[in-house]
Amino acid sequence: MGYFTLFHEGISTIPIAVDAPAREVKMALESLSSIGSVSVTKDLIGVRRNSNGQNLVPGATSLSSVWSVTFGSESEGGCHPGSWDKCPSNIGDVPPLEIDASLISFKEITFLK
User: Fold this and answer.
1) Quick one: pLDDT band at residue 73, thresholds 50, 70, 90?
2) Cys-Cys with 42: which of 2, 22, 32, 107 at CB 3.0–4.6 Å?
3) How far apart are CA 108 and CA 85, in angstroms?
4) Is residue 81 part of a domain?
5) Cα 52 to the center of its chain, rounded Å
C-alpha cells in the first residue's frame, strides 16, 4: 500500500500509487524532462491462495505489479523526425532511474487456523 516516486537526474515524479495503471506511470515518467516519450505496460503477479486454492485477499487479483517501460517509444507517437521534443534528452549511457519507496507500507495479514 502507498506510493513511490522515481528520480532521474535530480528531478522527481509526483507520487505514484503502488497499484497505478500503466497510463499513470507513463504520465509520471513523461513529466521528467530527461525522459521523453515512453510506452508502459503493466503485469500483475502474486495472487496469494490458501491450501484449498481460495484467494487469501478477497477482491484482489494480485499483490504485486510489474511495469515494463520502453523509452523513446515510436508506438506512442513519440520520438521520430518531426517530433524531436518527445525524444529523450540524452543518448547513450545515462544514469539509471532511482526509486524512493519510503511512502510504501506493508500490511501483515494474519490467518487463524
Assistant:
1) low
2) 22
3) 45
4) yes
5) 32
What type of residue is 45?
A: I
**Percent of residues, the chain, with pLDDT higher than 70:** 62
Helix and strand counts by DSSP (H, E) for the chain: 1, 6
pTM: predicted TM-score of the whole model, two decimal places: 0.69
Number of structural domains the chain divides into? 1
Cβ pair 4, 16 in contact under 8 A? yes
Let me know if residue 31 belongs to a domain. yes
Range of the structural domain that residue 87 is part of: 3-100
Has residue 9 been placed in a domain? yes
**What single-letter amino acid sits at 101?**
A
pLDDT for residue 45: 75
Task: Report yes or no on 58 lying in a domain.
Answer: yes
The residues pairing with 38 across neighbouring beta strands, listed in sequence order, are 71
| Burial (CB count within 10 angstroms: exposed 0-12, middle 13-18, buried 19+), residue 65 | middle
Average pLDDT taken over every residue of the chain: 78
Name the residue type at position 8. H
